[in-house]
Write a structure and sequence with these properties.
The chain has 15 helices and 13 strands. It is α/β, with parallel strands linked by helices. It folds into 3 domains: about 120 residues, Probable tRNA modification gtpase trme, domain 1 (Gyrase A, domain 2, 2-Layer Sandwich); about 130 residues, tRNA modification GTPase MnmE domain 2 (Four Helix Bundle (Hemerythrin (Met), subunit A), Up-down Bundle); about 160 residues, Rossmann fold (3-Layer(aba) Sandwich), CATH 3.40.50.300. The strands form 2 sheets. It has a 7-stranded mixed β-sheet, with helices on one face. The two termini are about 20 Å apart. About 40% of the residues are buried. It binds guanosine-5'-triphosphate and magnesium ion. Keywords: Cytoplasm, GTP-binding, Hydrolase, Magnesium, Metal-binding, Nucleotide-binding, Potassium, tRNA processing. Its cofactor is K(+).
Amino acid sequence: MPSSVTEYDTIAAISTPPGEGAISIVRLSGDQAVAVAKKIFKGRDLEKVASHTINYGHITDPADGSLVDEVMVSVMRAPKTFTREDVVEINTHGGIVATNKVLQLLLGYGARMAEPGEFTKRAFLNGRIDLTQAESVMDLIRAKTDKAMQVAVNQLDGNLHHLISNLRQEILDSLAQVEVNIDYPEYDTDQMTTNLLLEKARMVSKKIDGLLKTADSGEILQHGLGTAIVGKPNVGKSSLLNRLLDEEKAIVTDVAGTTRDVVEQYVNIDGVPLKLIDTAGIRKTDDKVEKIGVERSKTALQGADLVIVVLDSSRELVDDDIELLNATNDKRRIIIFNKNDLMPVITPETVEQIKSDDVILKTSAIKNDGIETIKQTISKIFNAGLEDNSNNVIITSARQAGLLRKAKNSLNDVISGIEAGMPIDLVQIDMTACWDTLGEITGESYQDELITQLFSQFCLGK
Ligand SMILES: Nc1nc2c(ncn2[C@@H]2O[C@H](COP(=O)(O)OP(=O)(O)OP(=O)(O)O)[C@@H](O)[C@H]2O)c(=O)[nH]1
Ligand SMILES: [Mg+2]
């Protein structure tokens, strides 16, 4: 990672969401940031004001002197800024037209339009944050619950960065030992070095396993747990959705085939963001519209991370139920016996067909009974991966998880190599590969292409 600040051109973007608001912020970064802002600002001389001050004044169009907006301008001199470059933030009066005009003026007077994520990219390239921290900036922006936000803040703080750096140092130490061994074979420390390497490989591998266990939960935190509620018509799927959301979102009637389309809504369950999907009841039908609905239900079912299969406990199981149970057998699922307030015809105990170790719950959507237990069950599924998460680090990105798996593969090669009695300098190659891969996680070793791709996922102005 470069340690000294490299010089880049000056970039500008609107950093607040598009639309009307109380204020909008136009941000500039680069060594010409203050000079460019000064050209369109009437007020105190921005090049003379103290760093980290906010200054009242007006933006005017230098071409005709016309007034654009009344603003507050923050001037922050490098290096104590988000990008480690000079940063200027112009607070405008929230309107779309005025804010755009300010940006256009800046672009006309020497700034270049920033690419998505370019401010954060500079923070990385200028060595203020590592890649895991840059990713956490994006996580923070997209966080759907407090918990997701907390995880992102921890990572922004550098928790994962430190953990990975420590692992890399351990590997480096053991590699140094190998070098000594190769350079001075007369010391006959062969066995010692091999043992050391094996011990280190196992230790690092265990740490990586621990991190990978959190990846599932991290993914859920980021993207929400896609949860499809499925079942034959009229079993109470929409009623359950409404109870879980605590609002009358989906239409409920006693007509079988009420829900025709897929209804989606995010809900926060103990900090777990859940994307709940209510679906059309699955049955064989000749109705043209319902048929399409049933197809959509099947697609939702396929794509779901978790399936809630709803059965009506007041009626005999029919083929449609059994088919659905079979179709969801290999899915992570919760089976629900709804309408528990009515005389039971089927119970989990008497249903021979369900030979599964899935969680089975009894509920009554009408009486709001058992809904808490559904929530607790979902929360448990999420927390399963975090049980021995002593490092307080959660892997939230697929990129990080992929690299961890790759690093672990190298370690497996180290371990099996040693066990097979391979020469130490060959084992060393795999250990070095692991060190490199871990470096990719933090961005200590990186490819330009990857960096460009990563930051392009950011929003504009960040
Ligand atoms: N007694 C009783 N009735 C329920 C319960 N849950 C739902 N119902 C009733 O069952 C009927 C169907 O409920 P919905 O929630 O529309 O069922 P659905 O599975 O979404 O039905 P479709 O959209 O047609 O597939 C309605 O009359 C509900 O009031 C329950 O727990 N107990
Ligand atoms: Mg419905």
